[in-house]
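Practice problem: Sulfotransferase
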Amino acid sequence: MGTKEDSSYGSLKSIKRAVLVEVGGVHLTNDSAENWDTLWGFKARPDDILISTYPKAGTTWIQEIVDMVQQEGDPHKCARAPIYERMPFLDMFPPEPIPAGVSKAESMPSPRTLKTHLPAQLIPPSFWEQNCKIIYVARNAKDNAVSYFHFHRMNQGMPEPGTWDQFLENFLTGKVAWGSWLDHVCGWWEAKDRHPILYLFYEDMKEDPAREIHKVAQFLGIDLQESVLNKTVQHTAFESMKANPMANYSTLPSFIMDQAVSPFMRAGTVGNWKKQFTIAQSEQLDHICAPKLQKSGLTFRYQLEA
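Answer key — structure tokens:
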């Protein structure tokens, strides 16, 4: 089914693939790095909700869940605009005439729900100062790496991914946009002991969506009726999200996200990594990640029990 493309892209007919630039020891896309002072200086408001994830860890999923909870389970209200309009992506500074995420956020009335992929140490300080509520979603490294690889293939604004082998090497050494997966999940895990952060796991969300949605509502101080919970579970199921033009990024022109290369909503499962990883690659990732994860007390599931 065809969808109407976003008109804010105006005369823009192509975009360049990003290159990586280090900011504070973390690789970011050049547009974020070039506008770093603006991003770092962003003024959070006390009632802001910030959704933070490593890229492709269930970001759009948790965004849609939060919106449904906030809109009392009304899917028509959630269809008021594409997800990237409803919840501005702070780290994004696209070419003209597309407004930057920061500009969109600044023009929004409170209360705002905002999105970032920044690691905890690079979050604009105002979020900590204002004691904003933050929801973080972590996904196991293997599924996350595969999803991120295919996202690079279809998103024409991301750096060239190269082959899967090359991409995985960069992923494991943190030479990808938003840096090391390991540092990201561990940094936010540590931050939750000092700040109001709800730390969720993608695998838990797949296993029991109602349970995790209930946690979100509780964290946001929203009393969730059973009927609203059920509607939210149905509306945010993978097949529903994949078919929803307000969530599946099909409103973006194909020169930005080419869904013929790989759909934005691709597999949405736990354990899909087994189709992409060799045994040696899986063991290599375990070897790199295990010591730091063990030290932090973080555990991930790479498959769900049938």
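Discussion: The radius of gyration is 18 Å. Students who identified this feature from the tokens alone can consider the problem solved.
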